[in-house]
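Milestone 3.1: sequence recovery, worked example.
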């Protein structure tokens, strides 16, 4: 029976954890096979105190490992640290090195440790830091002031520099304090209700209020809040402030001008109990461009309706009058010159002491400016939602496409490392070069996506389709070879399509990879790529004889996010979701015909407009 040490060594090897030991009596260093593999050295390499640390990148990494080993030897201090090394093949890797002290009769005789390759994890951490920096850049540079508060107690947890500029407070003066520091006493209840509606009732709106600066000035602001979010079981709320001082000054000046021009700024119209106009003030006549003779004796508003006036609103207004009810609305009307204006209207029935209806009084005002701002705000919110969806799509492209290339490169590296024939190695190195070039092209296209997101009016590019398919085949050459799938590319050399290159790259990679991934083991596999032109669309067909899909059962889920159908361990269920969104973003569509156990045909419609 194997002893415990042998079991431990076997377990470490299975977990790809390297073992090392420094014998202080003999000054010999032991590296197991995993440790050698991490450093990319063969069995002939003899590690010693000098050359073992030469693998650590010069500078802080090498200095740190030497200090830790010295402290372990001299002072018996164990260590656990992350390092960057460069292997004998000049590859950069990140490792976690743990060293433990071995004593014999209170004397240090050995230093034993473990070594683990954490390159993938460190790369993800580096990428996360990059994304965090990008988001923080947006957070810091936006024109709106941003405030993040703890939704449970109102404590400020973060803010951007724009809020510092508006309020006069520094981060240190705001973070950790209650949000009430920013609002005048008379508006605190109003703000509390506003935030309560957003966090607890799911009511989202924009509201004007005042912010109190550090020097006591009241600054008019427009406040809006997003949905609350949860991190580590704590709920937070993001609020956006916009300084509207200039807008308020303009509005105040306008009010002064209106008051100077007329004693009554609101439009007032009086109708009798039957809803017939009996009087209107000058403000109403001025707004509509009508005369008293044109309106008295007629139903109110009969000359104010136009093609864009909402019929449902006018019907509800008529029903309220018939039922002697109050009514409030904002409706699009037309003046005498057929010019549009938004009219805010309150209709109130007037009763005598015996509850007999006497009149209807309509009080209204032109709210075109406010309504247009609401429409603009909605447009901006819709744009924000669209940009968020684009960002989600972009993140999926990155994770999915880079993962495909990474898997292919890893496979090639494994083959190259295990191939002994020099000629075969050269051939696989050529494949590796092609795969890295495809990865570089993909990254270039992903960078183009960022530009595309920043300019939604970007034009599509003319691309030779066959050439792009050949590039994708070349990038997947080893995978294709191993899968023994036959790819029949019937696309003519001169076929040109108008596409966003990054999207086409992703679409081809997904569809060809899926044909390989879901091929049948019961027959010789093929993927046939062909095309037809119908009207303004070039239709590209990807026909395979793979596993197929039960469309009756799963047809509605084929292009859904995180939907998988064959139980493959490496299936993420986002490839077809990404593909569908990319094709639709280019003005096209995708269809599938499939029979389970027979195969599938995916048709992508590329719009030439």
């Amino acid at each position: 029976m194997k002893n415990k040490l042998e079991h431990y060594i076997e377990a470490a090897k299975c977990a790809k954890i390297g073992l090392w030991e420094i014998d202080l009596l003999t000054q010999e260093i032991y590296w197991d096979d995993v440790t050698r593999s991490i450093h990319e050295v063969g069995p002939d390499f003899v590690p010693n105190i000098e050359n073992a640390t030469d693998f650590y990148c010069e500078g802080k990494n090498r200095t740190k490992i030497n200090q830790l080993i010295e402290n372990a030897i001299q002072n018996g201090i164990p260590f656990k640290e992350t390092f960057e090394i460069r292997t004998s093949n000049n590859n950069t890797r990140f490792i976690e090195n743990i060293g433990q002290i071995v004593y014999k009769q209170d004397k240090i005789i050995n230093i034993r440790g473990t070594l683990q390759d954490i390159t993938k994890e460190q790369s993800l951490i580096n990428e996360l830091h990059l994304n965090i920096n990008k988001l923080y850049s947006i957070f810091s540079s936006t024109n709106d002031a941003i405030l993040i508060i703890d939704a449970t107690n109102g404590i400020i947890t973060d803010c951007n520099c724009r809020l510092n500029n508006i309020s006069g407070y520094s981060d240190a003066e705001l973070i950790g304090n209650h949000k009430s520091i920013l609002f005048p006493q008379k508006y605190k209840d109003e703000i509390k209700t506003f935030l309560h509606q957003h966090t607890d009732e799911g009511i989202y709106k924009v509201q004007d209020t005042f912010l109190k600066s550090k020097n006591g000035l009241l600054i008019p602001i427009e406040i809006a809040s997003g949905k609350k979010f949860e991190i580590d079981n704590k709920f937070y709320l993001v609020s956006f402030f916009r300084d509207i001082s200039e807008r308020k000054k303009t509005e105040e000046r306008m009010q002064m001008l209106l008051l100077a021009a007329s004693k009554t700024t609101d439009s007032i119209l009086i109708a009798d109990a039957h809803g017939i106009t009996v009087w209107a003030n000058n403000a109403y006549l001025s707004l509509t461009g009508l005369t008293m003779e044109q309106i008295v004796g007629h139903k109110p508003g009969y000359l104010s309706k136009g093609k864009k006036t909402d019929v449902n609103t006018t019907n509800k207004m008529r029903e309220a009058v018939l039922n002697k009810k109050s009514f409030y609305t904002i409706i699009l009307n037309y003046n005498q010159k057929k010019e549009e204006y938004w009219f805010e209207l309150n209709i109130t029935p007037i009763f005598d002491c015996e509850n007999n209806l006497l009149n209807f009084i309509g009080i209204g005002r032109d709210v075109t400016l406010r309504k247009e701002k609401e429409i603009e705000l909605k447009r901006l919110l819709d744009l924000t939602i669209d940009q968020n969806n684009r960002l989600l799509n972009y993140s999926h492209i990155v994770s999915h496409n880079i993962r495909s290339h990474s898997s292919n490169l890893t496979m090639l590296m494994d083959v190259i490392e295990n191939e002994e024939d020099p000629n075969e190695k050269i051939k696989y190195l050529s494949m590796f070069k092609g795969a890295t070039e495809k990865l570089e092209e993909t990254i270039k296209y992903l960078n183009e996506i960022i530009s595309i997101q920043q300019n939604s009016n970007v034009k599509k590019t003319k691309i030779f389709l066959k050439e792009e398919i050949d590039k994708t085949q070349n990038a997947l050459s080893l995978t294709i070879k191993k899968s023994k799938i036959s790819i029949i590319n019937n696309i003519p050399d001169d076929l040109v399509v108008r596409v966003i290159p990054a999207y086409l790259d992703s679409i081809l990679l997904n569809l060809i990879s899926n044909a390989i991934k879901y091929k049948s083991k019961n027959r010789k596999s093929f993927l046939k790529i062909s095309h037809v032109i119908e009207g303004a669309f070039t239709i590209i067909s990807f026909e395979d004889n793979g596993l197929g899909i039960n469309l009756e059962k799963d047809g509605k889920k084929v292009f859904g996010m995180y939907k998988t159908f064959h139980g493959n361990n490496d299936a993420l269920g986002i490839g077809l979701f990404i593909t569908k969104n990319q094709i639709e973003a280019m003005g096209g569509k995708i269809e599938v015909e499939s029979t389970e156990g027979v195969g599938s045909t995916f048709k992508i419609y590329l719009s030439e407009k």
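Residues 1 and 235 are 56 Å apart (CA to CA). Residues 368-418 form the longest helix (51 residues).
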